[in-house]
Amino acid sequence: MPEIKLSQAFLEKENKMEEKAGLKIKLYGDPVLRKIAKPVGRITDEHRQILKEMAEIMYDDSGIGLAAPQVGISAQLIVLDIGDGLYKLVNPKIIKRQGRQSISEGCLSVPGVCVKVKRAKRVWVQAKDENGCLIEIEAQDLFACVLQHEIDHLKGKLILDYASFLQKLRIKRKLAILKTKVKACKLLF
Q1: Nearest to 162 by CA among 117, 126, 100
Q2: Is residue 3 domain-resident?
């Protein structure tokens, strides 16, 4: 299959963003991380290309999950791989939760910050794969955690929203530095 490039028309239409060159991870402080991602209608070659590039970025940055808003795209797309193979999901939604677990989570958009997050120990997720086939995933432990984390990104929610008051005080300086980096990058472009 030939390499598919993301057209400017697609980026403007789907994202309302001014992304001009390849995808890159958006850092805490970028407003795109707080926006609710739009559901994907018909899955196109451009969506499949975005998923492919997201997976490459995730692997390059040693991540185990990545959501489209984290690369500046307002679309309900996620990729994840906890070591059992790559999942590319479109319009994922949690249909059932069970149990409780508390795991210290990091995030590629909030580098250097970990927050202990309470989540369901087991989840059932419905989504479409990159070919438009409806799938249902039953996940537990780390896999369930990563699914919930990435689906949170589609709702504009970050691990920081789960932080206790004390945790927020401890990470306040790191967050200020990240916000400064975001502002500096915007000034350069």
Answers
A1: 117
A2: no
Q: Tell me: pLDDT of 11 over 50.
A: no
- The candidate with the shortest Cα–Cα distance to 51, out of 13, 86, 98, is 86
Number of domains in the chain: 1
What is the structure's pLDDT at 18?
34
Check: CB of residue 119 under 8 Å from CB of residue 144.
yes
Asked whether the predicted pLDDT for residue 129 surpasses 60, the reply is: yes
Tell me whether residue 3 is one of the annotated catalytic residues.
no
Q: Which among 14, 53, 130, 150 is annotated as catalytic?
A: 150
Q: Which two tokens stand for residue 6?
A: 């993301």
Supply the DSSP string of 86-114, one letter for each residue.
Answer: -EEEEEEEEEEEES-EEEEE--TTSTT--
Identify the domain containing residue 156 by its residue range: 8-188
Radius of gyration of the chain (CA): 16
Closest by CA to 106, choosing from 140, 169, 58, is 58
- Within-domain flag for 23: yes
Please list the residues that pair with 89 across neighbouring strands. Answer: 78
Residue 2 lies in a domain: no
pTM: 0.82
Residue 1 lies in a domain: no
Weakest-pLDDT range from 28-42, 81-95, 121-135, 170-184: 170-184
